[in-house]
């Protein structure tokens, strides 16, 4: 008998994209499947769409929250209701191929993996880039965690992954957070085996109006705080990953600097860049220099951040903008090559 798969979909104000998302999930070829749909107190037409799908498909369980406490709260509510042996996630502005959960579940059973991953398509405007390994790759728990922290091959998204339910024991997602996917490392800690499959089955849509692409102090602080929390947590149990965790600190403080430059009246942002935090940043610089994880611009930015002076605070955001521009240009060239 095939294992039950539970699919969790938190929803908040994604009316223009929600119908396609849900149509793709209810069209899954895998059986048995349950769908936990969580409406995070949407204020557009999303609630009505959720109700419509729940009424027409008995596999859907609809949970309606009284207020929006972020996607983490929706996922936590769904986790309390799941019945499956495996758990997957879909974001409500994305969509999936009809055989995605068959592909994931059948290979999870075949290889005995605790976490099973498929490739995905990154869609922005009219461009589509396929992101997947050239061949099936199996990882030990430590190797998979390293790849997750590097965020290049295995990335911090919850979607396009299928997890054994036991991995969620004692785990909850942070509420009032946009980037709660950064907590996914907790699911990799008890895993024994991770398999990354070569076929792309998930469609990730990059939308300018989505929460994780907004530019405002709460979103800078949100991502930075979670990066620091992850670094502090793993430093206790995985000191061998120190260079990766120091890179988390570099990324976090770079975000703080960027936010402080864009919002100079925010005293709380300026105060973060002083005292103990400055000391931690200088300590992390030594480990990062030894690991060679930073390029020339990154090292320059790190050195300026560690000065903690007015000049550093003026120059760091400009260097960061240059790094962002360089990465964006590289991605555009990749998309151009991928679509040609």
From TrEMBL:
Keyword terms, alphabetized: Glycosyltransferase, Transferase
InterPro entries linked to this entry: Glyco_trans_2-like (IPR001173), Nucleotide-diphossugar_trans (IPR029044)
Gene Ontology terms, MF aspect: glycosyltransferase activity
Keyword Hydrolase among UniProt keywords: no
One family name in Pfam for this protein: Glycos_transf_2
Chain ranges of the Glycosyltransferase 2-like domain: 6-133
Name under which the protein is recorded: Glycosyltransferase involved in cell wall bisynthesis
Species of origin: Papillibacter cinnamivorans DSM 12816
